[in-house]
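Appendix B, Record 12. Input sequence as logged:
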Amino acid sequence: MKIMMQQLPLRLVKSVSLSATTLHEIASSHHKGIAKVVLKKGKTQLFKDGSPMVYSGAVDRIISRPPPKTGDVVLVADGTEKPIGWGLYNSVSMFSVRLMQLEEEALKDPSCALNIQKLIEKRIDAARELRKSLGLPSAYTNAYRLVNSEGDRLSGLIVDVFGDIAVIASSAAWVEKYRPEVEACIRKINDINHVKWRPSFDILKEEGIDVSNFKEMLPSTCPERTKVMENGISYAISLDGQKTGFYADQRENRHFISTISNGQRVLDVCCYSGGFALNAVRGGAMNVIGVDSSLAALELARENIVLNNMDQKKISFMREDAIEFMKSALSSNEIWDIIILDPPKLAPRKKVLKNASGMYRNLNSLAMQLVKRGGLLMTCSCSGAMTQSGMFLGNLQSAAAMAGRKVTILRQTGAACDHPVDPSYPEGAYLSNILLRVL
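Logged structural output:
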């Protein structure tokens, strides 16, 4: 990669010239130079159209000496070296720059141009306003996603709110570098009394971050457990549990289950802390069974029965492997009116998609055989690789053939509306939730 002479890049730009007419002029108004990442010929339009991730293969050269460091603010320029925007650099990641603003936007709001601290504040404020417009939080729901990475234009940053606790999930080197600025913005939010920082270790390793001493570096006074409410149902959650501690993405799908469960026998496979099962009972289900292999998850699920004063004769949870449970139920000729199948992420990477497809087919084939003819199967995939491949429906059709059943699609959704997706970065859509009629 060709390196040309220029001054040191700047970590935080504290002020800009309000009279500047180009991003280049704004950058030039500072006593320190800012590195310029120049794109290859033919690659510029993709990023002008909004794609936030400048992959390393799109970079022709970097104008700076010494080279920019990970987390530094950099200009992104076309082949003529004319800036088209600015972002945050990474010297190791497959994504060389995460674009934060295009030039036109930066000129409309120069106070944020090249100023990551101001931009973080503005984007988090905008995310809060969006959630308020969606009715979150409310008297019935205080568990929701406040910041959804690219969907809220803060790539690599996720913030989930659980009552008075904010859980920050970091999956980008720049988020780790600007942790004090991110935390300061979150702590200013009314009703947030605790902040828990949860780095995504595997992803951060790919970002070039040394995570070996992270645990010692992450002191927290945040409680390990808390209680939240979603759609009027109370949940005990562990902040050391899966993901950020609670699957807020399935909120609208859980509520839907409550609307179709009256008088039905319901099976919730891979139930975690019982979200779908509890909604089924609230919706008038005759009998509900939840199955999961995690003892910790089932302890929460059983606690949630008590929290909601539910009849323990109507709902129960069992610790068992999903496949083994369904095979045993099949041999016993058991049958359900509604089955929910929400397995963990089976395809974390594209390279394991083929094996994951086989697992999805087997799980769904078993579930289809356990649904009464004319009954319903709500089946899910939280694997982004599967959702983005477009293969999930094909897998379900193959599963139906294996089971000797015919299926029709009644409903097809993704994550709840507080999980916005940037259409120029469709990789942000990871959850598939499909309701099937099984004949």
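The CA atoms of residues 2 and 54 lie 17 Å apart.
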